[in-house]
Amino acid sequence: MNNGAFENKVALVTGGSRGIGAAIGAAFAAQGAKVILASRKQEALDAATAEITAAGGEAVGIACHVGRSEEVERLFARIKEEYGRLDILVNNAATNPYFGPVIHAPESMFDKTFEINVKGYFLAAQQAAQIMVGQDTGGAIINIASIEGLTPSPMMGIYSMTKSAVIMLTKVMAKELAQANVRCNCVCPGLTETKFAKVLIDTPEIYQQYVDNAPMGRHAQPAEIVGAVLYFASEASSYTTGAVLTCDGGSSI
Ligand SMILES: NC(=O)c1ccc[n+]([C@@H]2O[C@H](COP(=O)([O-])OP(=O)(O)OC[C@H]3O[C@@H](n4cnc5c(N)ncnc54)[C@H](OP(=O)(O)O)[C@@H]3O)[C@@H](O)[C@H]2O)c1
Considering only CA atoms, which residue is closest to atom 25 of ligand 1? Predict the structure, then answer.
């Protein structure tokens, strides 16, 4: 399984217990990285890491709610203690608890979505960057945003606002960290078959609208988002920072 492209690299994937994050974690491990998966539920993390180790890769799962600074600090303290470095951060854990018009959105839904999708990304990127700037080899931060951060869809307004903020966080950190050889890039998936998107895929009117607007005429599988992340984490993208790459079957053209 190991082609060694990320041999000895340490990679943290938040929201790595399932969906797109699990596919990303498995791909890094398949290429020799030491992978840390983080999400809230230890049991789900254990299942994801067991799959990686069964395939011959190296992975550990560390429970962490990314919106809580004390838990994020604990996660990074453990990474520093156990690995002494961090080469790749994939900020991927996100939520979308409210589906409806912004004008009727409860404040609690706004707060919850921003807590995970924006503060969570910010806290992890900040901790990761503090490790990476002290490394000769720098590091790579890859933020999973969404095409919703480029063009909003009906009823997804708050989520779209958070994903726009992720794109701007990427650009801000790319500028601030370029001299320290830490690159920050962003991937914007389109509709991808995961637990997160199940309700969208299972609702015929919403699904049909997406498919009608996507030149490729279909949604994605999680594995189809992985290549963009591996590219931004690798030396193949050594002169690329602050970039925003869509993986959406052409739906944002
Ligand atoms: N699927 C799509 O159509 C689509 C499209 C565009 C962008 N995206 C983006 O892709 C990323 C991954 O989404 P997905 O579709 O793979 O979702 P998913 O299958 O629902 O997985 C979400 C992951 O995030 C974790 N998570 C949720 N809340 C968390 C928290 N507070 N702290 C830590 N971990 C948390 C979940 O594990 P626990 O429950 O154990 O915490 C899980 O591992 C997200 O950033 C999403 O916005 C998805």
Answer: 15
Q: Tens of pLDDT along 47-105? A: 999 999 999 999 999 999 999 999 999 999 999 999 999 999 999 999 999 999 999 99
Domains of the chain: 10-246 (3.40.50.720)
Q: Give the E-state strand segments of 85-135 in sequence order.
A: 88-91
- SS3 at position 12: strand
Residues 6-63: tens digit of each pLDDT: 999 999 999 999 999 999 999 999 999 999 999 999 999 999 999 999 999 999 999 9
Residues catalogued as catalytic: 159
**Do the Cβ atoms of 79 and 36 come closer than 8 Å?**
yes
- The token pair that represents 207 in the structure block: 């699904």
Q: Which two structure tokens, joined as six digits, stand for 64? A: 């962490």
Q: Is 67 in the pocket of ligand 1 (CB under 6 A)?
A: yes
The verdict on pTM exceeding 0.70 is yes
